[in-house]
Amino acid sequence: MNGFLSPHEYFRRHGGRPKKRLGQHFLTQPRTAEKIVAAAHLSPDDVVVEIGPGLGILTAHLLPLCPRLHLVELDTGLADYVEEALRHRGHGARVHRIDVLRFDWTRVAKESGRRLVLVGNLPYQITSPLMFQLLEHRRAIHHGVFMVQKEVGRRLAASPGSKDYGVLSVLLSLYGRVKALFAVAPGQFYPPPKVDSLVIRIDFPESEADLGGVDFFMLRRLVNAAFQKRRKTLANSLAGFHGLCAESLRAALRMVGIDPALRAEVLTPKDFAHLARFLAQGEA
User: Fold this and answer.
1) CA–CA dist 178, 156 (Å, integer)
2) Is the Cβ–Cβ distance between 28 and 6 less than 8 Å?
3) Using one digit for the tens of pLDDT, what is the confidence trace for 248-278?
4) Hey, what domains does the chain have and what are their CATH numbers?
5) Which family does the record claim for this protein (predicted)?
6) DSSP readout, 3-21?
7) Which of 263, 268, 258, 220 is nearest to 241 (CA)?
8) Crossing angle, helix 167-175 and helix 216-228, to 10 degrees?
9) CA 216 to each of CA 47, 142, 143, 274: distance values in angstroms, whole numbers, following the listed order
């Protein structure tokens, strides 16, 4: 497999088994790996970060394309294995032995002199916290191609009014663009997960949409509050937000053209941005 061992061969030689606590499901199909890397549309000047190289099935396709490659791997045994494979190939890729949720995207982008391109087969349990982290560091990231749990991928790309629409749907729509690319069946992994996967691409435009200077963290708090009780009306789910009493909240919603009797799932991302800006300006 392009100089890297298959999962079966690796565990036969080294013993052990995939670690459930790390969400390890190793892609086994080189053609799918090739499609994932191709979807990133890489150029030789790109600075690429692979999240969780594992046994190197994506790495093998990245190495010929990426003179500047960073690999973020938490599993020390796999990090040792990948570093040894890189030495044999004479490639200068850097392996970061760290939890990706602690990786400093902005620092690496500044050191590299350009925004980053991300690629990875994401452990299901870290997908949502990672997306929030990437949103915070979005100015350091050009785009990313990720394999995620299919249900999670649908939520990231969901539109208002759908049952999948939620906090990340809103924020990613405002600050980026999400596109679903293709599904991957469980049988393409070792061990096979219980659900289908979805490959998605997320772009973070250098020139963001004009949100009127609304603060990202203020907006995130607002959207979180609205969706925490998604079956309740906005008048109830946002009760007490920003220190507003019930009457002031209803007045604020009406001032920005939002019916207080609506639920969060029907508001557009721009509705949330407009409300956040209005509240931050203290006009309520």
Assistant:
1) 7
2) yes
3) 999 999 999 999 999 999 999 999 999 999 9
4) 7-203 (3.40.50.150), 216-280 (1.10.8.100)
5) Belongs to the class I-like SAM-binding methyltransferase superfamily. rRNA adenine N(6)-methyltransferase family. RsmA subfamily.
6) TS--HHHHHHHH-----GG
7) 220
8) 150
9) 26, 18, 19, 12
Known binding positions = 25, 27, 52, 73, 99, 121
Pairing label, strands 47-51, 116-121 = parallel
> Nearest 5°: phi and psi at 205?
-60, 145
Annotated binding residues for S-adenosyl-L-methionine, written as ranges, equal 25, 27, 52, 73, 99, 121
b/e per residue 52-61 (b: at least 16 CB within 10 A) = bbbbbbbbbb
Other beta carbons within 10 Å of 42: 18
Question: How far apart are the C-alpha atoms of 203 and 145, rounded to whole Å?
Answer: 9
* Three-state DSSP class for residue 254: helix
Q: Are 74 and 53 in contact (CB under 8 A)?
A: no
How many Cα neighbours within 13 Å face the side chain of 175? 29
Half-sphere exposure of 93 (CA within 13 A, CB side): 31
Q: What does the DSSP 8-state code read for residue 93? A: P
**What are the structure tokens assigned to 248, written together?**
């002031």
- Could you tell me how many residues make up the chain? 284
pLDDT band at 2 (very low <50, low <70, confident <90, very high): low
Indicate the pTM of the whole model.
0.93
